[in-house]
Amino acid sequence: MREVGKIWMNGKLVPFKDAKVHILTHALHYSTAVFEGIRCYNTPRGSAIFRLPEHVDRLFRSAKLYSMKMQFTKEQITDAIVKTVRASTLKECYIRPIAYYGYGTMGLTPTPNRVDVSIACWEWKVGESKAGKITGARCKTSSWLRIDSRAQPMQAKAASNYANAALARVEALKNGYDESIMLNYHGKVTEGSAENIFIVKNGQIFTPPLASGILEGITRDSVIQIIRADGGEVIERDLDRDDLYSADEIFMTGTAAEVKSVSEVDDVIIDNGRMGQTTKRLQHSFMDAATGRDERFAHWLTHL
Ligand SMILES: Cc1ncc(COP(=O)(O)O)c(C=O)c1O
Q1: Cα-to-centroid distance, 251 and ligand 1 (Å)
Q2: Where do runs of H (alpha helix) occur along the chain?
Q3: What pLDDT is stored for residue 39 in this prediction?
Q4: Taking residues 94-120, what's their average pLDDT?
Q5: Which residue among the candidates 6, 140, 157, 188 is catalytic per the annotation?
Q6: Do the strands 93-101 and 115-122 form a parallel or antiparallel pair, or are they unpaired?
Q7: Residue 244 and residue 240: Cα distance in Å, rounded?
Q8: Domain boundaries, the chain
Q9: Residue 134 scores a pLDDT above 80
Q10: Class assignment of domain 129-293?
């Protein structure tokens, strides 16, 4: 991690290296935190944050699902995100706002503690999400099932969801794959450990519905809107594991991943193992939208 710029903590910008919390911070012990992952891209009109209002809305929705009382308004958090990115002097970065139960009382009940909010940003190197960009990612269906809304609100981007996701990611890496694909308790495809998933079959594009237990990805929504604007359609329906194996193309979407291609699932080669035309086209269209090169989606950008 290259420490550049400042980190916003409860209303103050502090030097990167001084942005510390107490070891008895509630969230550190009990995962009582919700967060966001946002990107700022360099565009022909300068740096711009991609779909900022949607990310701020999701942060507040996540907090609501966990009954967390935010001490800041959406407008204050939006301003703080812009301020933090400006203070970083980075032209492009990844932004991480987090709301968490802080230091105060210990024990499972979080509510006596204040909900602290921090915003950090840092450079995101292409290497971090390289698999799937140039060649396809090799994926493994995880032996860990995706937790579902009977156990935790899966529409929340909550830290607690990521223990499950990290188990799947580590299992995939240990077995020599790039990424995992998680099934739900009904054996249906949900998502990757930090990406939504789409398949292309016989010219049609499918993606699992929100009710399968996925995060409502903002990149997923962007890609769906791009496909529709180009005259295409996306069918949301449950997908089985064999839908993956027999797909003509598979791609994943996420703020970090952007649009990445999947070339293998459990050693089954998808089509000819090369990136498909639909994936390639969407990769370009998404990047055009995110970097201000497609006027149709100019409203997705918050210029600094
Ligand atoms: C579990 C999970 N699913 C999907 C996504 C994709 O969401 P988004 O496109 O909003 O980044 C993410 C990334 O944040 C994620 O962690």
Answers
A1: 14
A2: 26-30, 52-65, 74-88, 161-174, 218-229, 241-245, 277-290
A3: 97
A4: 96
A5: 157
A6: antiparallel
A7: 7
A8: 6-124, 129-293
A9: no
A10: alpha beta
